[in-house]
Amino acid sequence: MLPVSSGTLDPAQVKETVFPSGLRLVVKESRASDLASVQVWIRAGGFREDAASAGTAHVIEHLVFKGTETRGPGSIDEEVENLGGMLDASTEKDWTRFSCTVAGRYVGKVISVVGDTVRNPKFRIEDFEAEKPVILEEINQVPLNPEAGIARALYQLAFKQHPYRFDVRGAAQFINKLDLEKVRAYYRKHYVPSNMVVVVVGNADPAGIERAVRTAFQADQPAPKAAELPLAPDEIACAKAERLEVTTPLNTGFVGLAYPAPSVKQEPDVYAMDLLLTMLEHGGVGRLPRALKNMGGVEAAFETRRQPGILYVIAATGPENTQQVEGLLRRELDFITSHPIPANELEVAKRILHGSYALDSETFSGQAATLGYYASIDRWQFATDYLRKVDATTAAQVQATAQKYLNQEHSVVVLLKPRTVPRVEPPRSNGT
Q1: What CATH number was assigned to the domain covering residues 11-228?
Q2: How far, in Å, are 94, 256, 338, 412 from residue 151 at the CA level?
Q3: Beta carbons of 383 and 371 less than 8 angstroms apart
Q4: What architecture (CATH level 2) is domain 242-418?
Q5: 23, 148, 204, 393: which sits with the fewest CB atoms below 10 Å from its CB?
């Protein structure tokens, strides 16, 4: 995909339209290249599920491409591919996204296809049965990826009530029992216009985009308001310290730690947490990699969510080092809560976030993803305000955020240990 100029998300260049149906349209016109990205973000995902429905949004993601009342199986992908694009979809804890990037002159046609796909899926029983093995295979792949497995286990330990504890892919026993009518009911409840945001960024006429969206999404027709559906009550993660140790056939040991983290509504804490995360881990040269002293690799993650989430750290190490690595990670996290943040380190972290923001904004699809992400969990202006708010964050705020969230009494740990730990032979004497 051709890069476009960074420095991109100026709020003055973004136009939002709210239609009578409740559907929102966010458009950012740019002539930097002849491309345009069309994305539909839906407030449906893990946060709208429970023990009896976890994985349903993911199933719907698979089924909507299988055909509509007017487009048969296979015709949706073929139609978009003939325009030089490819439809993509993903489901997460806070949202579901459908996206496509094409030449600007085809935006209206893509909006027509995507609108029909999202608003009028056929949900045929034969497609449902055919997709079940595909979904089950995705679920079965998780144990083969230790980091993904640890992240899933950390969420399950961290949350006792909130839907964030469920894996969005679902569980095999649930998918096997799921019937199509439950899928249709979930769709009717959550895939309504007031739960959707259409984002278009690129070389396309805003007036033409608006006309195309009005038609494809029946945007002028009144519709049920999903926004009135209550959210699950906020749950502060890691209410008490817990640990899970799992024996695996792997030859590598893994350590996962999780701590509570702020929601998108806790704005000052979010910016400080992003800076904190950058100082801890960025690029393998942050505080945590240095603390491990070449004992293994480490990654840290914090995703801004609609409701309070978690920050987690995952380290891979030698099978005999898991307890030592856990201690080193905790020691470093304690250190950052109890010692002032050096001004120069904070400035480096801010420059890194500026660079990451610019990198994410190099393509129209990246810009649409950033606007759509925040529009789906809060408001798109969060994206355009982001760097200014990061720059205004002080070292004292970062340390206060670390003290607020990185409390060892409110953390959970998952250890993956090999069945057998290699015995370390003592050095042989040379006889002297």
Answers
A1: 3.30.830.10
A2: 16, 8, 27, 11
A3: yes
A4: 2-Layer Sandwich (3.30)
A5: 148
Q: How does strand 35-42 pair with strand 196-202? A: antiparallel
269 compared with 421, residue with greater pLDDT: 269
Torsion angle, alpha carbons of 121, 122, 128, 129, to 10: -160
Residues 205-228 pLDDT 10s: 999 999 999 999 998 887 666 546
Q: Do 11-228 and 242-418 fold alike per CATH? A: yes
**Per-position b or e across 247-283, b if 16+ CB within 10 A of its CB:** ebeeebbbbbbbbbbbbbebbebbbbbbbbbbbbbbe
As separate numbers, helices (DSSP H) first and strands (DSSP E) second, the chain gives 15, 11
Owner of token pair 């942050």: 286
Ordered by start, the domain boundaries in the chain are 11-228, 242-418
Q: Please answer whether residues 288 and 325 qualify as being in contact, where contact means their C-beta atoms are separated by less than 8 angstroms.
A: no
> And the tokens for 22?
């409740």
> Residues of the chain with pLDDT > 70: what percent?
94
Q: How many residues appear in the chain?
A: 432
Query: Locate tokens 């910016």: which residue?
Result: 271
Token readout for 309 is 């989430």
Q: What is the pLDDT of residues 164-210, one digit of tens each?
A: 999 999 999 999 999 999 999 999 999 999 999 999 999 999 999 99
Output the six-digit token pair for 260. 């509570």
Nearest to 325 by CA among 258, 253, 277: 253
Hey, what amino acid is at 95? Answer: W
